[in-house]
């Protein structure tokens, strides 16, 4: 994991510039002509500034100018204002992260680099989500822990380039028949991801016609968020190359199952002698968790209603987040329970020490992956500090229980609207302390802006408005 300074100094700039000059020479030899520097905004859209390869050194040293107002863009590119961000004034500097710069196989001649935003005086921007995540990783490390994470990427493929969704594959859910409808597309996708350095664990058709999912290897949280962006943009590019269109919206059609953006997360004890040890396995706690793994999981479970404001951040998210659709609509946990918002993945017998992890099922692809992971780590870290314990696991679909049975077991439904999630987010003192006032206020302003934008829309109108934005 690379170091992100709280403020850029002269030595930082000199080192980044020298590395960028060397990188630019190497990339030019590979026929790369431009670098797309990306950040993900509060509404979950990947934005970019691009520089020709011969300007990479300058961009790394001094940054590329951009307005702070991008933090309050809504999904339709309209703009709101918060107490900390808004209006035409001010400027930030966008610096490419050279450790994660890679040529994009799906876009020949182009390279991709995630970016970090700094103020003109060199101070890191308080709303830079990648820097926020770095801060949470450091805080966890100071307590002797590290995390590993990965995002599941679900998307739906539409035939042609029109705005109406027309499934490009109609075979049965999870069937090989659906693969045989798009074999060249899927083959090229795997090929381009491998050439870009992404370790794909599996690719399979999902439930909805035209829907697929890619699972990637776990890595450090910042790397996991970088990879999530890179995978999605590779999918988007390959899909376009085949004359089709990819949607990562939480709900592509009002009457279909939506796209999930499940987060896999595990906690590891640092050990310089024996190597990291997975706190989610090998212990005396529930499902073999250690006491630390249980506390980390319990911290996340406790804060799920508030966490939805960053993990299920769109109006369309709440069309997906419904009971009995494997979306995790209830705040509960259970081993291998795909209806629990927090599924505990045990791993195969004999592999638990490496494979055991948490899956947060209620999150979706509209989330900014950096912000989502930062909030999850803050919640888990608070659980560790408080020594929290988990309630009894749930082994059934909570919707099959009566309301009285759920109440007796402490199983509550998650917020059913974006407004409810935002209210919980603003009340949460732990997230406020971890993320900062500027983040809390800006996230709330953007969420309310999008809720107002679609306040009178039908489910069909919501899906039409969001289908091609994420």
Automatic annotation (TrEMBL):
The EC number on file is 6.3.1.2
- Give the first-level EC class, as a single word: ligase
What SUPFAM superfamilies does the entry give? Glutamine synthetase, N-terminal domain (SSF54368), Glutamine synthetase/guanido kinase (SSF55931)
What UniProt keywords apply to this chain's record, in alphabetical order? Ligase
* UniProt cross-references to PROSITE patterns, sorted A to Z: GS_CATALYTIC
Q: Which residues form the GS catalytic domain?
A: 129-470
Alphabetical list of InterPro entries matching this protein: Gln_synt_N_sf, Gln_synth/guanido_kin_cat_dom, Gln_synth_cat_dom
Could you give a GO molecular-function term held by this entry? glutamine synthetase activity
Pfam families in alphabetical order: Gln-synt_C (PF00120)
Which family is annotated? Belongs to the glutamine synthetase family.
Protein name in the entry: Glutamine synthetase
* Protein's organism: Actinomadura algeriensis
């Amino acid at each position: 994991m690379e170091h992100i300074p709280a403020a850029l100094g002269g030595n930082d700039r000199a080192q980044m510039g020298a590395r960028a000059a060397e990188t630019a020479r190497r990339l030019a030899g590979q026929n790369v002509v431009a670098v797309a520097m990306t950040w993900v905004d509060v509404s979950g859209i990947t934005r970019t500034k691009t520089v020709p390869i011969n300007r990479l050194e300058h961009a790394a040293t001094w940054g590329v100018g951009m307005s702070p107002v991008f933090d309050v863009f809504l999904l339709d590119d309209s703009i709101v204002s918060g107490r900390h961000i808004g209006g035409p004034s001010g400027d930030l500097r966008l610096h490419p992260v050279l450790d994660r710069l890679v040529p994009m196989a799906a876009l020949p001649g182009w390279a991709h680099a995630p970016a970090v935003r700094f103020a003109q005086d060199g101070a890191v921007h308080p709303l830079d989500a990648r820097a926020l995540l770095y801060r949470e990783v450091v805080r966890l490390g100071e307590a002797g822990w590290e995390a590993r994470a990965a995002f599941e990427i679900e998307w739906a493929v539409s035939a042609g380039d029109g705005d109406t969704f027309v499934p490009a594959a109609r075979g049965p859910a999870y069937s090989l028949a659906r693969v045989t409808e798009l074999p060249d597309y899927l083959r090229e996708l795997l090929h381009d991801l491998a050439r870009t350095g992404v370790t794909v664990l599996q690719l399979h058709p999902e439930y909805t016609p035209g829907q697929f999912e890619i699972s990637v290897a776990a890595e450090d949280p910042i790397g996991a968020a970088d990879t999530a962006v890179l995978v999605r943009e590779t999918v988007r590019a390959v899909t376009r190359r085949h004359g089709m269109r990819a949607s990562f919206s939480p709900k592509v059609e009002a009457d279909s199952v939506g796209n999930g953006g499940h987060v896999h997360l595990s906690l590891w004890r640092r050990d310089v002698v024996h190597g990291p040890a997975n706190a989610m396995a090998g212990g005396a706690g529930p499902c073999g968790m250690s006491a630390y793994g249980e506390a980390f999981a319990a911290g996340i479970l406790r804060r799920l209603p508030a966490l939805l404001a960053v993990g299920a951040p769109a109006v369309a998210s709440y069309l997906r987040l419904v009971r009995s659709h494997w979306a995790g609509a209830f705040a509960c946990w259970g081993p291998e329970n795909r209806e629990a918002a927090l599924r505990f993945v045990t791993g195969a017998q004999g592999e638990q020490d490496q494979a055991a992890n948490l899956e947060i099922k209620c999150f979706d692809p509209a989330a900014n992956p950096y912000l989502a992971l930062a909030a999850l780590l803050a919640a888990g870290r608070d659980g560790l500090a408080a020594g929290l314990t988990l309630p009894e696991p749930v082994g059934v679909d909570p919707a099959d229980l009566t309301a009285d049975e759920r109440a007796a077991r402490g199983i509550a439904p998650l917020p059913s609207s974006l407004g409810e999630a935002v209210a919980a987010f603003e009340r949460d003192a732990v997230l406020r302390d971890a993320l900062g006032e500027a983040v809390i206020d800006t996230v709330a302003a953007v969420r309310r802006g999008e809720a107002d934008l679609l306040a009178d829309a039908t489910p069909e109108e919501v899906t039409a408005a969001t289908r091609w934005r994420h």
